[in-house]
UniProtKB/TrEMBL annotation:
Transmembrane segment boundaries: none
Protein name (Swiss-Prot/TrEMBL): Amidohydrolase family protein
Keyword Hydrolase in annotation: yes
A GO term, aspect molecular function: hydrolase activity
Keyword entries, A-Z: Hydrolase
UniProt feature coiled coil, ranges: none
Organism: Microbacterium saperdae
Higher taxonomy: Bacteria, Bacillati, Actinomycetota, Actinomycetes, Micrococcales
Top-level taxon of origin: Bacteria
Length: 455
């Protein structure tokens, strides 16, 4: 570990209440590399956030061709398209425009902490030297941000490379919800298709681990495989589940009985390749998410659910990601003990999240992603939630795979929480003891309690 990396200076940042609290990052992607891609430095994140800018300035078919060529490793075709449509120049324009955002502030804070102040080019050169020992760099990020543990949403996590003392895995259940893939996406951008591909690839891996190259002949057999696969992963260290299906479908999960689910499964299994059957796909995924949620109740595992906006590229339909669409699912009597965490503030639905957490005792919230999207809104949302909800309901997180953003987002998360607690103390909403208790709970205690982690 680098000896030059030190935790934040509390007096320098004015974090009198929150600065020294050891944190647990509820929502991370540490150790994540997209299928078919290589571990990359932070400039890849700058390229990623430029995607929406690029997509809106070239023909739609050209954008699709460019992304597909890159994913297929056809570098010549990708380079030709990039040259024809000025994609490098468009990315540079987007990077400059993003310099005024909370994202760039978080990236700057993280780069300065890990590589020293200097030009972005010099910091990038330093980052490249750390790729050979990336885990050590992430450890440095945790030390710099006084983070003692992260819960990371990754397809697989090697406990020998990423020790459980600091890194715990969250597993997406979405791959199991779509055994026969997805209808062809016909909207703008590539983000929805990217998610569909990632989920399908993970299901292929899990089927292979069970000795199969395709889904089972009957729904009953497939359901048994899902339970067997998830149990194996939990036994290997998974501490919670996650649903990201808002990138692909509505969050309105309805009750589907086994007869209708079986009919949907059989229809999709025997359908011609390329056929479109949205009703059957929704029925089957509705049924399977309920089955897996009941396993989570039985195994006492929390479930994270994405709601609200997606990435800075078309794909996710924001109306389909309204958390109020979850009401039917969340009000299922047999799921009253399912611990659900609605993650990263659900922008623009933060107040709706608060209402759900208020009404349902088993619903919790985190404000991951928010600190490096919109600092002032994070303060307003935390004011609303912490005054409205009991102390065990809210948690911090970062929602990043990049150590630089982890550092910056954690500092911004602490700053926002500090602002809210100091204002509440001045307004006599809370006592000094209560602000200390809230800081400890929000920054780690609530996550430890929810997931049964060491305090």
């Amino acid at each position: 570990m680098s000896t030059s990396v030190m935790p934040f200076s509390v007096p320098a940042h004015g974090l009198e209440i929150t600065g020294s609290v050891p944190a647990i990052d509820h929502h991370s992607h540490a150790a994540y590399v997209r299928p078919g891609e290589k571990l990359a430095t932070f400039d890849s994140l700058e390229t990623e956030i430029a995607a929406g800018y690029v997509e809106s300035r070239i023909p739609a078919d050209a954008y699709q061709q460019f992304v597909r060529a890159n994913r297929a490793g056809d570098h010549a075709a990708a380079a030709a398209l990039a040259d024809r449509h000025r994609i490098p120049a468009l990315r540079d324009e987007a990077r400059e425009l993003y310099r005024t955002t909370a994202f760039d502030r978080a990236l700057t804070l993280g780069c300065d902490a890990l590589y020293g102040s200097g030009s972005r080019e010099a910091q990038l050169a330093s980052a490249r030297t750390r790729l050979e020992d990336y885990r050590s760099l992430y450890d440095d990020a945790l030390t710099a941000s006084t983070t003692r543990m992260v819960l990371t949403d990754v397809p697989d996590l090697d406990p020998h490379e990423w020790p459980v003392e600091r890194y715990r895995q969250i597993a997406r259940i979405d791959p199991y919800m779509f055994p026969f893939g997805h209808d062809t996406y016909v909207g703008r951008g590539f983000d929805a298709q990217r998610f569909a591909d990632i989920l399908s690839e993970k299901l292929t891996v899990e089927l292979a681990a069970d000795g199969r190259d395709s889904p089972h002949a009957t729904l009953g057999e497939y359901r048994e495989f899902v339970a067997r696969s998830l149990r194996r992963r939990v036994d290997a260290g998974v501490v919670g589940f996650k649903i990201v299906s808002a990138y692909l479908r509505t969050l309105h999960f309805e009750h589907v009985d086994v007869v209708d689910a079986r009919a949907a499964y059989d229809a999709l299994r025997t359908a011609p390749a390329g056929s479109t059957q949205p009703v059957a796909r929704k029925q089957l995924s509705d049924y399977l998410v309920s089955e897996i949620a009941h396993l989570a109740v039985e195994w006492e595992l929390p479930v994270q659910i994405h709601s609200g906006i997606g990435h800075s590229e078309p794909g996710l339909r924001i109306a389909n990601a309204n958390p109020l669409l979850l009401e039917e699912f969340l009000n299922t009597p047999s799921l009253n003990r399912l611990r659900v965490v609605l993650i990263h503030g659900g922008y623009p639905y933060a107040s709706q999240l608060g209402a759900l957490a208020h009404s349902l005792g088993n619903v919790y919230l985190d404000y991951s992603w928010m600190p490096y999207l919109h600092s002032h809104l994070t303060v307003r949302v935390l004011q609303e939630w912490l005054e409205f909800l009991p102390a065990h309901k809210v948690a911090y997180g970062t929602d990043t795979a990049h150590p630089e953003i982890h550092v910056g987002a954690t500092l911004l998360a602490r700053e926002a929480l500090e602002t809210v607690l100091q204002q509440g103390l001045s307004a006599r909403i809370w006592t000094a003891a209560q602000t200390s208790m809230l800081a400890e709970r929000v920054l780690g205690g609530n996550v430890a309690e929810l997931y049964g982690l060491p305090r």
